[in-house]
Amino acid sequence: MRTSEKPAANAAAGLSGPASRKLPVPPRERKPALAALAVLLILGGALATTLLVLRSGDRVSAIRVTQQIGAGQKFTGPALEEVKIAADSGIDYVSWSQRENVLTSFAAVTILPGTLLTNEMGIETSSELGEGKATVGLALKPGQIPAGLEEGDRVQVVHVPSRSSQGETRVLAPSALVFDAGSNGSRQGNSGQITIVVDSASAPEIVAFASSGEVAVAELPGAR
Question: pTM value?
Fold first, then answer.
């Protein structure tokens, strides 16, 4: 009796399907150089940003003037204050650490409030208070002093004869520096005391007329 044998299953039959026809996938190429470059760029950008932030916050202490200082006047403590400015501002500022030296110097020009002090604005000696100059105190009555007079202003000192005396009105000092504006009363146009700087040669005559009340002052705004 013949035994019929079943054909053996073809083990390779399943390999003939579409799945067996996929193309081989090449292995991915690693690029360590590009990865390192990307990391360096990220770190470099972060470092640059940090430096910009740090530099923008760099500040130095400088001196700002808070009160008007006339040319030739000495700097005073209340007229100076500390301010912070950018370190790379390009301004020839005077450092707050030099404040003590500033207090022993004089203003080379009239300095207005709010001005940042620079080296060109100060001098070691004052031409206004030097040799050949004198300070004179004047006690003035209403009408003899303009309103709003301040330290550092320039005034013309005028002899105003009284009615009983014989004489003509004349200028005793064409441009005198107001060294001290006195009390608030003088700034309101009332009677008050001021101290002016004049030539020592004209000081005796000014004092003599001032003692008899025959002196008045006129402000010279354009001479500041």
Answer: 0.51
Helix (H, G, I), strand (E, B) or coil at 15: helix
CA atoms of 142 and 191, how far apart (whole Å)? 5
pLDDT tens-digit series, residues 38-81: 666 666 666 665 555 555 557 889 999 998 887 777 899 999 99
Give the three-class secondary structure for 117.
coil
Measured CA distances, 12 to 6, 9, 17, 148 (Å): 17, 9, 10, 115
The pLDDT, as a whole number, for residue 185 is 40
What is the share, in percent, of the chain residues with pLDDT greater than 90? Answer: 22
Strands 106-107, 80-86: parallel, antiparallel or unpaired by DSSP?
unpaired
The CB density around residue 197, as the number of other CB atoms within 10 Å, is 23
Q: Distance of alpha carbon 80 from its chain centroid, rounded? A: 11
How far lies 223's CA from each of 27, 123, 172, 218, in Å?
Answer: 89, 20, 17, 12
pLDDT more than 70, % of the chain: 68
Note the helical H segments in 57-190.
Answer: 99-102, 184-187
Tell me which H or E stretch contains 138. strand 133-140
CA distance 60 to 214: 52
